[in-house]
Amino acid sequence: MPAVGIRELANLSMVIARGELLRYARGKDGYTARFEDRLARLIGVRHVLTVNSGSNALITAMAAAGIGPGDEVLVPAYTWVATALAPLAVGAVPVLVNIDASLTIDPQDIERQITPFTKAIVPVHMQNVVCDMDAIMAIARRHKLLVIEDACQAVGLRYKGRRVGGIGDLGVFSFNHHKNITAGEGGAVLTNDDRYFERARMFHDPGAFIRQHAPTDEPLFSGLNCRVSELTGAVLHAQLGRLDPLLKTLHARYPGVADLFAGRPHCRPSPHHSPEDAVALSVLFDDPEEARIFGQTRGAGRLIDTGRHVFTNWEAVLCKRSFHERMNPHQWAHRDITYRVEDYQATLDILSRTCRVSLGAQYPAPVMLLQKRTLRAAIARLSAQRDGAPA
Ligand SMILES: Cc1ncc(COP(=O)(O)O)c(C=O)c1O
Question: Is the beta carbon of 55 within 6 A of some atom in ligand 1?
């Protein structure tokens, strides 16, 4: 959970003192507009649009890209449920893809799931771990598919030196309470494409074009209200200054914690697609039972036990249930999409054997030392049990 403090309070006080809570009130000088500008420069994209959640950022990105009825969207079987719900919100259907040991979408399984109806791939940078973007972009270009990066759990992360969210055709961030930077709730859509940006703005706020008198050639279409208030922008503007220091701390702590698992063949750090940029650690066990026991250690957790991040808990998706039967996107799909648990055993197997290990983003150094001692003891206990010696 990120730090929030005096800088956020100062910005909020300013907004309240001015009484200008609408994000457009001060135009380009508003906190929200300045946050978008700074975030665009940090990530290296032309456009950033702040919206009121990561879920709505995904939906806005899909609407902006023209995804709709009859389209299939590839999403990993391990992600927050919102990734799979977003295609349904625009009339398309999600097709699940297995993850690999890196905890991210498996490029080989992407290839297997592509059909003539596939429109987009949504790689999800889960748990501050980046996807195999080179492989994914190559597949997308070969099959002429869009890539919408779900970087909700990976704001600011680098993949081979580039910041994620700016690599695909569009990217999305979440700023909810658990993310790298937060305003309690919030999200963003990122793109280098001027037209997608115009369409995203149009979709996220039916009033945006009236208020801003922004020139556009794009014919006006119906959208939703996913607009943020200037209170959100004020907090995010302050939070952005905390992002790189946070990632630096996590990166510096990574080797010290990863080394605890060195020389232990039955549990090892999960493979990483950009190890030189790693800011999060998870550990793959040979034995799911050992992962279960280790997952009970303070600062660790087994991934199969993380509720709606695991596709087996996405009831509405699996049952193809919509708020209104005639609005159910599956009736517009060109084929029957199946969500059989047996097709995603690879994902369940990896999740049942993997534990995340906290790098203590907000722990002071002495607490981190204690945390490492706790982890070391847990690893030693497991090794002793393996060797048949008393724990
Ligand atoms: C991978 C992923 N995608 C999308 C979302 C949705 O973000 P929000 O909670 O801001 O709607 C989340 C949030 O937890 C997420 O982790």
Answer: yes
